[in-house]
Amino acid sequence: MSLITLRDLTRHYPRGVVALDGLTLELEPGIIGLVGANGAGKTTLIKILLGLLEPTSGDASVMDLDVRTEGMTIRQFVGYMPEYDCLPPDTSATDFVTHMARMSGLPSTAARERTAEVLRHVGLYEERYRAIGGYSTGMKQRVKLAQALVHDPRLLLLDEPTNGLDPAGRDEMLALVRRTGTEFGIAVIVASHLLGEIERVCDFLVAIDAGRLIQAAPLGAFTERTGVLAVEVEEGEVALAAALVARGLHAVADGRTILIAIADDRPYDIVRDAVAELGLPLVRLEQRRQSLEDLFRDEVYAPPPEAVPPASGGATR
Amino acid sequence: MTSTPFQGSGPLSPTTPAPAPTRAPALEVDHVSRWYGNVVAVNDISFSLGPGVTGLLGPNGAGKSTLLHLMAGLLAPSAGQVLVEGASAWRRPEMYRHIGLVPEREAVHMYLTGLEFARLNARLQGLDDPEAAAARAIATVDLIDAADRRIGTYSKGMRQRAKLAGALVHDPTILLLDEPFNGMDPRQRLHMMALLRSMAAEGRTILFSSHILEEVERLADSVLVVYAGRLAAAGDFRSIRRLMTDRPHTFTVRSSDDRRLASALIGDAAVFGAELADGRVAIRTADYDAFTRALPQVAKTIGVTLFEVRPTDDSLESVFSYLVRR
Amino acid sequence: MSGVQAPPAGGAATTASGPGGSIYDLGYQSYDGPRLGRRSAVQALFWQTVRACFGIGRGGRAKIAPFTLAALAILPAILAVGFSALAAQAGPAGGAIENASPIRYETYHGLVGVLIGLFCAAQAPELFGRDQRYSVLPLYFSRVLTRTDYALAKVGGLMIALLAVELAPYIVLFVGRVLVAPDPATGLTDEIGAVPRFLLQGVLVAGLLGGLASVIAAWTPRRAYATAAIIAVLIIPPIIVALVGQLTNQDLARAIVLFSPSDILDGTNAAIFGSIPDSPVVASVDLPGWAYLAAAAIGITASIGLTIRRYQRIAT
User: Fold this and answer.
1) Of A132, B129, B239, C185, which residue is 20 to 30 A from B298 by alpha carbon distance?
2) Distance CA A71, CA C148 (A)
3) For A197-207, what is each residue's pLDDT tens digit?
4) How many angstroms separate the CA atoms of C79 and C83, rounded?
5) Could you state, in chain order, the average pLDDT of each consecutive group of 10 residues for chain B (326 residues)?
């Protein structure tokens, strides 16, 4: 079963804003990262997937359900965690998430029980009975995640889940997202600006810019080895570089790091031996990999005109 | 634990006894505290900044925003003083000429265009030629195309750049930014980083706060770590790591025979833990220097090829989490 | 929309059992139970709205205003019944007292109409404003209700709550008078005529005031402004109508009286019970009863429509 299928999906807004431009994509269940330019494209895509916005042209289906005709069914099985603040301050997490569960069609007993379980899974304990207004950012993010999970969705749409979290909170949220995708068995789409997070959590990457698809591939495809071996020693790099060159390697110094062109496994032992014989402290030895950032660094075309679509509902029903 | 002043190069330096510099540091924070009733937001912090990029880190509520506002002269210290080019910053409007602050919260008027906002700031600064200054600032942050649209129509990243333009109109030597990369997409982020780096290369002093450690690691020459209103560490984070002598270093090694390697390494006095997991050996050592020398030698002796050696906790993330969990 | 099959679920169970004991799986469980769909969600929202009108589920302070107002609204009825009971014991002289009582079905609206208005002004803004102010609406719309469903559930909940507050006093009066009558059977036949009347008036009051409060609160998320606007809409037009009536001719007053909700309800009350309207202007303008009834009906439909429109167009 394909998780999401887009065929030439296009969405225009008034005044010539093109949010999505002929997106064609097929995604299998997994943990998928969605990266791209700010504003229009990402939000529009999420709304279309939730069946809340009609495409201008093209098709989209979620779990083999057409977004134009079966939006309501889709929404029973999709959980959405928005980027911005969306929690009322005067209710408790328990009351709020239970209510949201009912809004997703769960009967009242099931709503209560699932709320209690889901709040535990996201890590909210006694605080769940206090009013949300008094929560820290981290706790609020957890409530947002809980309301997205409470009705046991098959697909989770997380929009910048680590927004506003400090490094510790970010760690915990990312671990939670990873668990959700692996242990809970729920397909996850994480929209994020932070490539480091995507590298850490996701298996698959979708990159969109100016409404067009730039890349859609497993993460491994972006972090290929580059054929450059980096050796870092705490001291004596000059002597080491000389020794390596003497043994026939193509070695270049870059600060404290020495870069060696590598085509097979032979250089590893040569390096090891040279370092050992010189008695140098070996701090790092690894083959350089490309990073996701190179994707964005090398873009040659002009930055898209960044605009926010006009504020109108444009609802499908 | 560590209140040892950091000795080293980079834009940060300790303020405890050092020979009087021939030139005052660009910005100096001298035993500054700030409290609100019984709540101490900033607790006796001292450091000085010079040209280059410094990152300000800390958990939420640690006092970073307060510290930035104190440094910009927008708040009075409850104790201590903030010195800009050797003179106190409080209540001296001409000091604002040296400092530009880009605050975190939306501090722009939505109904102004980008250019108008920059011009407004230029006029508020009392510049001789506000038009030119505004145009220059807009060009620096690459907002020329959108300069005539209202800020309300900008995306988040563009708003950040508009704020930055407003802070740059008066060509400040010191730039303070509170979470400047918030909400920016990868390309905007790279652009902003390149911009800050180039400004630092011109000799400006730049301090920015962020939660995104990978970026701080990349952009900042050194860091200030603030925790619960106090300064937990200052300097180059690798050097900070070396100073944490009460914490074992961990390394991850991939080799042609992990088990034999682990077994041989355990025999070495520098190693007190070797764990096989996940296709790797994770090693714990109390003696960084001895271990890094021993590893290649041991591997050579037993004839095991080393494919990958990585210090696992040498990242800013690791240093930071250690500092704030004490 | 029940009985929809969910696509295959995930999550691994890790229960272990041996002869000596068992470990139970506390990991994430999938949900395989019924998913009741749109109707259940709308009903849940409807009842939650009704509860919120009385501050139930929101802590003690939230209950003060609604319960006080409801109590004040019902108080005259209770007093009237009490007096009737006393009067009945006093014999024939009691009958005279009874008839002189100012608290009757037809006068009740005049007595407590203001309280119902205040109830709306106090409760409606929170019902509609809170979800808008805190951007909760996208969370609703990403679930199994439509924007129209949301609007109707909210408006409906408010109207039903108002209906309860509005009808309770009448019912107390009715029951009291039946019980107090010398012979319950005749009492019943005497009083029964009033029932359809007060039901109709009650529905019109709940509908019109509820509808107006909904529109205003839905379009004005700021709580204080909405409350002020609701009160203003109830208090100011009658003043204007009265002034116009005094200063100019009756024709102008007649033209605008149907734009004043309070006067409309005054008019419907008079028409339904065949009594004299409270407002002198309404009395002098002398429009036929059905005009007020039609105005009320139009007002109710229009306000429901405008509320729905607000939620269909609101940006998320």
Assistant:
1) B239
2) 15
3) 888 899 999 98
4) 6
5) 37 46 76 88 90 89 86 87 80 78 79 88 85 89 84 80 89 91 82 89 92 85 88 84 78 93 92 89 90 94 93 80 74
Show Cβ contacts of residue B272 under 8 Å, excluding neighbours closer than 6 positions: B248, B284, B285, B286
Inter-chain contact A275–B296, Cβ cutoff 8 Å? yes
Extended strands (E) in A107-186: 155-159
pLDDT tens digits for range C41-94? 999 999 999 999 998 877 778 899 999 999 999 998 888 888 878 777 776 665
d(CA C227, CA C231): 6
C214, with CB counted inside 10 A (0-12, 13-18, 19+), is buried
The pLDDT tens digits of the residues spanning C171-197 come to 998 888 888 777 778 778 877 888 888
Measured in whole angstroms, how far is the alpha carbon of residue B272 from the centre of its chain? 34
Q: Does A265 sit within 8 Å of B305, measured CB to CB?
A: yes
pLDDT digits (tens, 9 = 90+) for A9-65: 988 887 777 888 888 999 999 999 998 866 668 888 988 998 888 899 999 999 999
Rounded CA separation B145/B154 (Å): 12
Q: Is A227 exposed, middle or buried (0-12, 13-18, 19+ CB in 10 A)?
A: exposed
**Which long-range contacts link A108-115 to residues 24+ away (Cβ below 8 Å)?**
A108/C44, A110/C31, A110/C33, A110/C34, A111/A150, A114/A150, A114/A151, A114/A152, A114/C31, A115/A146, A115/A150
- The full 3-state SS of B38-52, as one line of letters, equals CEEEEEEEEEEECCE
Report yes or no: A101 and A128 within 8 Å, Cβ to Cβ.
no
CB contact under 8 A, A36 and B185: yes
| C163 Cβ contact list (under 8 Å, min separation 6) | C202, C203, C206
Burial class, C7, CB count within 10 angstroms (exposed 0-12 / middle 13-18 / buried 19+): middle
Contact assessment for residue B51 and residue B12, using Cβ atoms and an 8 Å cutoff: no
Q: Would you call A259 helix, strand, or coil by DSSP?
A: strand
Q: Do A306 and B158 touch (CB under 8 A)?
A: yes
Token pair listed for B261: 């390697």
The separation between CA B49 and the C-alpha centre of its own chain, rounded to angstroms, equals: 11
A281 touches C at CB < 8 Å: no
* A64 close to B (CB below 8 A): no
Cβ–Cβ below 8 Å for A296 and B295:
no
Token pair listed for B271 = 């190693």
Structure-token pair, residue B36: 């609100």
Query: Which of A171, A193, A208 to probe by mutation at the B interface, max B CB count within 10 Å?
Result: A193
In 3D, which of C94, C240, C260, C253 has the Cα closest to residue C180? C94
Q: What is the pLDDT of residue B96?
A: 74
For residue C92, give the DSSP letter. Answer: H
A13 touching B (Cβ < 8 Å): no
pLDDT at C109: 86
| Residue B229 and residue B77 in contact, taking contact as beta carbons nearer than 8 Å | no
- Amino acid type, A37: A
Q: Residue B84 and residue B78: Cα distance in Å, rounded?
A: 17
pLDDT of A270 > 80? The answer is yes
Q: Which 3 state secondary structure label does DSSP give B87? A: strand
Q: For the ranges A163-167, A288-292, C3-7, which has the lowest average pLDDT?
A: C3-7
What's the Cα-to-Cα distance from B305 to each of A57, A216, A287, B298, rounded to whole Å?
57, 36, 14, 11
Nearest-angstrom CA–CA distance, C230 and C213: 6
B242 alpha-carbon distance from chain centroid:
19
Specify the pLDDT at position C225. Answer: 94
Chain-centroid distance, C-alpha B87: 24
Nearest residue in C to A2, CA atom: C7
Of A85, A95, A184, the CB nearest to C28: A184
